[in-house]
């Protein structure tokens, strides 16, 4: 019986990915992180229960509470003196536990602060795991022969290690805080620079309601608009924030929305944003020739497949491109079904697709943003909203 090279390539890629997932801290952390991001309603019924169970288990294991002794040791190692000599107060009970860190509320020089401590040993574990990414180069190349798999995996390595360097994260957060300090809708708490370290990040405390917990329809709609403005507009700012999360965006009492975590970021040029906008405009205008030329300029696809890309994209996203549409779990499911129905036509495009490494984290942002917006169940003219945020920024 003849084998299907396409199926064999996909199976080899999946098998390699599963082997890595079973044996690495990094993969388990990624699975744990999905628990708060993925809406179970968007998963296929046949494996929804198992997927939710695995995510819950991974999250519980990855977010086990650090003892207060461990937290104080991490702080004293970072600051060179006991935390009691630096902070006025430090609540021994954590206010948040994530797969990567634990957060406590404290007081510094009379002001409330959030004290984030990286989990001990995590950077070394992840760094060791990332050395295994090279095993994905060959199976990725078999499925996507036009992609520079080695360069893409190097990009993943560099960005993930940036996320685990809290001093680097603090410097990025400081830039966002300064840029948005007078914004009427958006806010970023300023880090306390003197207390930030590779394993510790201290920033101004923010009170508010996480967008994932908002129930008022008007507030949810405002949150959706703020999320698009912040995340898509961050590309125009020059540093894209690539990890939309329902717990890291909060509505403050004054109606502004504050953004709390700046681990997943990447610099992005205004030229790149403009090139993407040209492609978006051509797609919405159903201009196949301009779309093809734009995709080739971006380095994603050859110009000659512009017409095919346009037809497939318009059908997969039917009902989402012309005026207001509701973004919810059913919308994501429907889009996924339409894409699956075009699997045969999409496969030839996959063979000539190339994602430049600098676009990997911006694409992560767009996928994560759509997932988060679906949880808010809001109706908007999404293409217009995205386009305006990318064009004008903040």
UniProtKB/TrEMBL annotation:
SUPFAM superfamilies registered for this protein in UniProt: Protein kinase-like (PK-like) (SSF56112)
Domain ABC1 atypical kinase-like stretches: 64-290
Q: Which Pfam families match?
A: ABC1
Family of the protein in this entry: Belongs to the protein kinase superfamily. ADCK protein kinase family.
Its recorded name reads ABC1 atypical kinase-like domain-containing protein
What is the source species? uncultured Solirubrobacteraceae bacterium
The taxonomy runs:
Bacteria, Bacillati, Actinomycetota, Thermoleophilia, Solirubrobacterales
């Amino acid at each position: 019986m003849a084998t299907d090279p396409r199926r064999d390539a996909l199976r080899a890629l999946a098998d390699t990915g599963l082997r890595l997932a079973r044996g690495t801290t990094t993969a388990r952390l990624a699975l744990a992180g999905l628990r708060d991001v993925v809406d179970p309603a968007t998963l296929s019924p046949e494996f929804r229960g198992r997927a939710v169970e695995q995510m819950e288990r991974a999250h519980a294991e990855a977010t086990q509470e650090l003892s207060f002794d461990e937290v104080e040791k991490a702080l004293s190692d970072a600051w060179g003196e006991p935390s009691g000599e630096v902070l006025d107060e430090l609540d021994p009970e954590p206010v948040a536990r994530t797969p990567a860190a634990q957060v406590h509320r404290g007081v510094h020089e009379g002001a409330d602060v959030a004290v984030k401590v990286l989990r001990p040993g995590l950077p070394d574990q992840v760094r060791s795991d990332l050395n295994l990414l090279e095993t994905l180069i060959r199976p990725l190349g078999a499925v996507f022969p036009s992609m520079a798999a080695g360069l893409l995996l190097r990009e993943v390595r560099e960005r993930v290690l940036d996320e685990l360097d809290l001093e680097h994260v603090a410097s990025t957060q400081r830039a966002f805080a300064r840029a948005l300090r007078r914004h009427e809708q958006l806010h970023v708490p300023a880090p306390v620079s003197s207390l930030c370290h590779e394993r510790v990040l201290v920033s101004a405390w923010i009170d508010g309601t996480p967008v994932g917990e908002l129930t008022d329809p008007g507030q949810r709609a405002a949150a959706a608009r703020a999320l698009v403005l912040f995340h898509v507009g961050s590309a125009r700012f020059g540093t894209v924030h690539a990890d939309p999360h329902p717990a890291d965006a909060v509505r403050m009492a004054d109606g502004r929305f504050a953004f709390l975590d700046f681990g997943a970021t990447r610099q992005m040029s205004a030229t790149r944003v403009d090139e993407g906008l040209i492609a978006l405009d051509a797609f919405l205008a159903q201009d196949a020739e301009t779309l093809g030329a734009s995709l080739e300029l971006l380095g994603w696809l050859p110009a000659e497949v512009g017409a095919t890309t346009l037809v497939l994209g318009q059908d997969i996203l039917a009902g989402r491109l012309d005026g207001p549409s509701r973004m919810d779990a059913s919308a994501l499911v429907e889009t996924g079904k339409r894409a699956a129905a075009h699997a045969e036509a999409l496969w030839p495009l996959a063979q000539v697709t190339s994602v430049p490494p600098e676009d990997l984290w911006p694409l992560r942002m767009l996928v994560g943003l759509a997932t988060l917006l679906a949880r808010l169940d809001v109706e908007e003219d999404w293409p217009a909203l995205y386009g305006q945020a990318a064009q004008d920024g903040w």
